[in-house]
Structure prediction request, 225 residues.
Amino acid sequence: QKEVEQNSGPLSVPEGAIASLNCTYSDRGSQSFFWYRQYSGKSPELIMFIYSNGDKEDGRFTAQLNKASQYVSLLIRDSQPSDSATYLCAVKEGSGGSNYKLTFGKGTLLTVNP
Amino acid sequence: DAGVIQSPRHEVTEMGQEVTLRCKPISGHNSLFWYRQTMMRGLELLIYFNNNVPIDDSGMPEDRFSAKMPNASFSTLKIQPSEPRDSAVYFCASSFVGFQFFGPGTRLTVL
Prediction:
């Protein structure tokens, strides 16, 4: 059973701080990793993806991947109250082919306090 | 770009009734996924299709659930008969080269 684990939170940070969200996965063969943001009552929205070890930056968001440790994280710099949401980590099973099945973690609730 | 379209957005029904949820994927996407989300279990994959063909239905909870994709622009998820424990938000997502985009969801309440 492939698993994706996240701390459920809530993670509370003050406005302007760095929020760090973490995720571990069990399938060592996983190749693609995604972060989704879900506002309360809304659907998940893709915000970041990463394939290679190291960091990937997009605006205030940085995704970090360490395949040896089976660990992926999302950093949000200069956190804003509008970043308050649940963040879902998703892992694509296997590599290549036409299998695009994702396994999702249960999400971490982030609250940014003004 | 209309995104993934789901209907109805809300459904309230009584136990034992048939429920049909509908999804129109993004044009050009060749994979379609049905998920269920609850507080207790999070986001669970029920079934997914590639090029209209069901690939993995291992997440379908029991025979009461069925899904079809008769063409590239339409899919249904049917629950018959419905039970209170089926109450959840059901999402449809479509994908092209691995990036999944979610519809707004259908909130199902079974009384």
The interface with chain B takes residues 32, 34, 42-46, 49, 88, 90, 92, 98-107 of chain A (CB under 8 Å).
